[in-house]
Design a protein that fits this description.
alpha/beta, about 25% helix
Length: about 170
């Protein structure tokens, strides 16, 4: 909340959302420039795939209860005029996970779920009165399609003698 420029395209509405029939408390909820509901989860320890069930619960809650998010949005005093949310057609949910380190297995895992997920590593240094933040947004690389291994159709004496040591 103190450094909103890190999440430059997200207007943060509220922190620590309590209530409703959800387990746990999302760290922050916001709306991005495209009108998507954003669930922001912050950790101060390295993150692995075990974070996914937690944030999925928050995302399902937000998707199932857009009226709760709409109420928070309408109660907000300083909401920007350029963000338009289509509340009648249930906005999409976007998940943002922020941590000092995110294991690469987490990046591969989020590619398998149906929500947009941003993984952001933030490292912080303080020197005297200055604070420095290194922000790294992880992005999944396109991986080649995995196929089953195949052996040679014919692997006989003739093939062996042609390609390997004849002795």
């Amino acid at each position: 909340f103190e450094t909103p420029e890190i999440l430059e395209d997200i207007f943060l509405i509220k922190r620590q959302i309590r209530g409703g029939k959800k387990s746990g408390i999302p760290d922050m909820v916001g709306i991005d420039n495209d009108g998507n509901i954003c669930i922001v989860e912050m950790k101060n320890v390295p993150v692995d795939t075990s974070i996914i069930p937690q944030v999925l619960q928050y995302a399902v809650w937000a998707e199932s209860n857009p009226d709760s998010i709409k109420t928070l949005w309408l109660e907000c005093d300083n909401k920007p005029d350029d963000i338009i949310v289509e509340w009648e057609s249930t906005p999409q949910v976007r998940i943002i996970i922020i941590a000092p380190d995110i294991l690469i297995s987490t990046l591969n895992f989020v590619g398998k779920i149906n929500y947009t997920v941003d993984l952001v590593e933030i490292k912080r240094w303080v020197e005297e009165n200055n604070q420095f933040l290194l922000v790294n947004k992880l992005e999944q690389e396109k991986e080649p399609k995995v196929t089953t291994t195949k052996g040679l159709a014919v692997y006989d004496k003739k093939f062996y003698l042609k390609h390997y040591n004849k002795k």
